[in-house]
Amino acid sequence: MLYMQAVKYNKVRSLVCDPQTLEWNPADLRVSSVRSSKFGVRLVTTYARLRSAAAAQTILFDKTGTLTHGDLKVTHASFSEEWGSSQTQDILWRAVQEIEAGNTHPVARALLQESPSKLEEKVEWLTTLMVSEIKHELGRGAQAVVTAIQPGSSSTSWKLAIGSRAYIESLGVSVDLSQTPVKIRTGITTTVVLAMDGKQAAVFVLEDKVRSDAHQVIRQLKDLGLTIGMITGDNAASATSVAREVGIDSDMVFANALPEEKCRTLARFLQRGPAIYVGDNYNDILCFASASFSICVVGSDMKSFDDDCADATLISSETPPLSRIPLMILLARRMSGIVTQNHCWAVVYNILSVVSVLGMGGIGPPSP
């Protein structure tokens, strides 16, 4: 009799203690991956993070290359008095070419596309231009040492810095945008500042366009109960213009943010609950890692640094990329609901199994 009690007790313990009955089966994630791939989303994530996407309360967007196309074009350039001559401007453009060579960031591509048209065909007075000690800071800008050797004179060197206004000001450089027309710098643009030896030398304004599906997607996400925000390194005027066009509330726009500041802003929302971050990978690696769930927008003209940098990647297809985000969230919620349902059935099954093994009267554990 004691032996039979022990057998029954062990059966009960094996049923109620089996952790697999309360885990998300890997098959669930495989089903999610297959379904998401059908509408242009590639999942590389974990069960826990997909559940976080389902439970998310906030979704934060990068601006350039995410809400906008990221196909930038230089529409305005202004130079300080010291660097206003044709010869000195040539030095700046050639230096920019050297520093940004091979860089696939949208800003770098735009400057590289513009520089040939700005350079004179013959620069006989400048025999040599050397750019050394190049240092790129992801999401911030770049620094280098530029040395010009002119015929019949000694060499002249400058320390160059190029990047967003916030980055240049963080280096102790005073930035003045008064030479840039207000209409230009408050449009859907990105402003790049170039400094030489700690002084502003040039300002470049790069024009962008909002993605055609952005406004509709923001409205759909709001209908799903999500709070929508935007974090960008660009100036507040440009960020506000984009936010107004896509339907993001002004109090949810965070501009002039360096990568570390983006993470701090994201962290504040994470304290309130799960948050999703959407970016184009160029300046968003830190936020991808910090967010509860991350989505990378990869356009047909872009290649991400690491295809697995985000939980979900919006791969190139005929469908506008942002339109797949609401579908991604709905799929995550659907899969989370199925798993919760399975958990409930597992609990019910365990209870019924316990009753079946022990009998309606029940038994206690065997005596030692």
TrEMBL record:
Keywords: Cell membrane, Ion transport, Magnesium, Membrane, Phosphoprotein, Translocase, Transmembrane, Transmembrane helix, Transport
Localization per record: Cell membrane
PROSITE patterns: ATPASE_E1_E2
GO BP annotation list: copper ion homeostasis
Main localisation: membrane
Gene Ontology cellular component annotations, sorted alphabetically: plasma membrane
Domain of life of the native organism: Eukaryota
Topological relation to the membrane, as annotated: Multi-pass membrane protein
Annotated Pfam families: Hydrolase
Record's protein name: Uncharacterized protein
Organism placement in taxonomy: Eukaryota, Fungi, Dikarya, Ascomycota, Pezizomycotina
